[in-house]
């Protein structure tokens, strides 16, 4: 077994639109981390703002790939999941995690299924119930506020939150079995936005200056940078803060370009990652 770490990321290929695998792979590569990919579906483009999309479901490829990797002795130090193609994939991913993990392998789950108070097109409450079972197995989860509300059963509130509200969400997530929680999109005042990190004890907050642009794909940039920094040895809170900083720089690089509504120019922020490599 190679001494170098190897990560597997499991999420869709949106052929254009700067999200999921087209974001995760370049970001993890910029960290210098070997990354395998398991595409959950192939879409012409993401589902957030385009008028339509093609969708090729790759669910039944997963057990075949799992069996083949076992035959070849392929294994991974960490599994980072994002947007899934079907609820059935959750069972396949749990099996894959058992089958091709290195000792001590970690499961990092971004329950990518909702934003701005709503589930993405194609997801329903039944999927949320299945996602809860993956959350319960994960070492770390990376929900945004909307996803955390769906998972915890806490009502979604638009705008600024309070520490009491965030604690209620944390407790609700803990009740369904979440262990280490990185909650994104947290803000108590209009001028700051950040993350809330709970590893079982008290919640730690890391805030950055608020940047006023709602942007698609930022959750995937956050989760990918978080995973890379965490696997390089950062604490969870430090990895989350660095990920937030890369997201902010990506948004800033995109501001003023109204034709670029579908995503953010994360490519221009990659040097933040390559420059910090040890
Ligand atoms: O960024 C999350 C995401 C990933 N993949 C697809 C999506 C979305 C969000 O809408 O549609 C296909």
Short description:
The chain is α/β, with parallel strands linked by helices. The chain is built from nine helices and eleven strands. Helix 5 crosses helix 6.
List keywords for this structure.
alpha/beta, two-stranded antiparallel ribbon, globular
Give structural notes:
The chain has helices spanning 21-30, 61-72, 88-99, 125-137, 145-152, 163-175, 218-231, 236-254, 270-276, and strands at residues 6-16, 34-45, 55-57, 76-81, 101-109, 114-115, 118-119, 140-141, 180-186, 192-198, 204-209. It is of the alpha/beta class and 278 residues long. It is globular. Helix 2 packs parallel to helix 3 and helix 7 runs antiparallel to helix 8. The longest helix has 19 residues, at 236-254. Strands 3-2-1-4-5-8-9-10-11 form a nine-stranded mixed beta sheet, sandwiched between helices. A two-stranded antiparallel ribbon has the order 6-7. The model has no long low-confidence stretch (mean pLDDT 97). The two termini are 22 Å apart. 44% of the residues are buried. The protein contains nine helices and eleven strands. Bound molecules: 3-hydroxy-5-(hydroxymethyl)-2-methylisonicotinaldehyde.
